Predict the 3D structure of the following.
Amino acid sequence: MFVISNGTLTKYYSNTVRDGHLAEQRGKRSRQRNSNSFAFTSWWADAKNQPITDLVGFTKTFFAKHTLLNILTRYCVFDVDRKLLVMRPYQIVAAEGILLRIGTAPNHRQLGTLAAGGYVWHTTGSGKTLTSFKAAQLARALPAIDKVLFVVDRKDLDYQTMREYERFEKGAANSNTSTAVLQRQLEDPNARIIITTIQKLSRFVARNKKHPVYDAHVVVIFDECHRSQFGDMHTEITRSFKRYHLFGFTGTPIFAENSGTGGNPRLRTTQQAFGDKLHTYTIVDAINDRNVLPFRIDYINTIKTAPNVRDKQVSAIDTERALLAPERITQVTNYIREHFDQKTKRSASYRHGGKRLSGFNSIFATASIDAAKRYYTEFSNQQKEMPLAQRLKIGLIYSFAANEDEADGLLSEEEFETEGLDQGSRDFLDAAIRDYNAQFGTSYDTSADNFQNYYKDLSQRLKNRELDLVIVVNMFLTGFDATTLNTLWVDKNLRAHGLIQAYSRTNRILNSVKTYGNIVSFRDMEQATNDALALFGNKDAKGIVLLKPYADYYAEYEKKIAELVRLFPLGAPIVGETAQKSFIKLFGSILRLKNILTAFDDFAGNEILSERDFQDYQSLYLNLHAQFRSVSDAEKETINDDVVFEIELIKQVEINVDYILMLVERYIGAKGTGEDKQIRATIERAINSSPSLRNKRDLIEQFVDSVSAKAKVDAQWQAFMAAKKVEELDRIIADENLNAEATRSFIDKAFRDGSVPTTGTTITKILPPVSRFSKSNGHATKKQTVLDKLAAFFERYFGLT
């Protein structure tokens, strides 16, 4: 295990993670840049997921003897492929929380109650299987524990989880193909970890009203505990077992806001079914830590609902009919075909699983079996005349339980029953499976066992990127992980946990080519998406995070603006540190309010302060920011402790170069009219109110003075800045006696990569030669001086051309 740090930022990683990455890189073309090992590392963090990045803080916590020994002896997994997996801090905290409950519950006489267990909210894609495995493995080792049951709620997950557990430790767990096998395992004292489905466990309980295992001390871990555990099966199991700890893992808990209305009202939320929340790691945490990818969402409008329709029920029926209209099916299919290469990055190649692959693959989620059949037929028709090599390889799967959308947009249970399908739908699925068989040399159909095997084969080919697109209704939208999958095409209504689960099929990290999960929605789900992200991004979620009414925010904004104008009128100096701090605090709160208000249509035209006055206040705010940043470290402690600058909020509405050039064009056209002075003042005000343009003020002013009406402003700007860049860089080279060619190459790479490299040997190549026998620290001082000058030069010109 290695730790990497530059003093300010510190991370850790295992040697096999780095070795595996380098082995993959060796298969790439030599002209491609090697990825930085830093991208394959983990932050250390506290129990609330706050990264401990500073080397001093990291050392005090990570290298504390008990912590380091626990990581090395308890929270590393050396898997069967001889890869060392070092658990991430949130995984460790969750496992510790489970072990703590197991240890304390008997002393408090809580066995067999909710208080003996709890649930772990770790977002989809954050490694819940490894966390649950390690918790199960450590629980198995406790002398008091007789059995650890890992319960899944779908047949395919039984198979998937077994393979995952087998990867972590050969023979660690026992899976079962039937209730009879489960019974033998429950009666076998050597079968310590058992993987089973909730259906098999429920059948065992129903057939065995009395059994010795009910009195055993057992740990029951439910995977994906947001699903069917809230029904009668959950009640039967908890009623039969007497001395149990019940733990649930979920990426999308059920709160009051996203619970259903059916079933037992006392088992509708995750907390009701499993007890306390033991740890939280939200989708926001995972994206910030780069453990999963962010989403990129496109909304493609394919139908417009007529306004002022009185009968909403008739309107809904008409809309659904329109959504299945042949013209729209053709349009959507054509859109997917035309944009498939672009969305799945078909032009990019990479190595995965020992193979060279081109681009990624995708899932197409449809609203019903009828819709899935129509789309499959349309893809077949549109690709009929195409050369075989150019056709998309398409699969189709659905089952009886996935017959229609849930009324509220949540995903229904995924089952493997084809018996309940109407004859037409079953015949169609059989025909699609025959197409699949012809493509891959297999022999599946819709009979019970064959259909399950078809599911498994389809699943594996999707993971290996042998398929381009699979059309589904509900299958594969929850609990399915494929790192090669990067796009979800959506033509169905989704919301809450169903939406997050479906979207999260696309955001597993694979390599540097895959930078985000693509969602292409053919329905208006923007509000549903915003609501779901608000709910599952809020780690303290008791419900959905709703904005207050516009009037509430605006009343507060009015009050703050009135206070600002009264206490700090424009033109009057702000004297003294206390007054400056008051201004910073007040204007920061105004910036935060304005950031919220701009989301409301009503705010446009009701900003109270004119654009000019707001820019002047913003300039004053930035002046104080620059002033406080320039004070000595000793003074900073006394000034900056209670000063928070909202610079990021200013950057959200940043003045850019295009805006300045537009003003310059107006300035040229207005010369000699008297209006030019006002425009010049507007340019200066815009520069002063911009965090990124303030240090370029002299350059912009020189350009404005030199600009001519005889040529295009943009062309003059490019030429002026190019000349100034050369002039200033040549001056730095001359002043510091640098290697001219190496310096220019160094700066060109910095502009290409977006930053000035401060480490490595590149910087030494541009410095003048220094005697290696010099006892002074002159070389280090010179290096720092040159780096500071080049960094300032980079900041001055980056983004200007």
Q: What stands out?
A: The longest helix spans residues 713-736. DSSP finds 30 helices and 20 strands in the chain. Residues 657-710 form one domain. The CA atoms of residues 22 and 595 lie 44 Å apart.
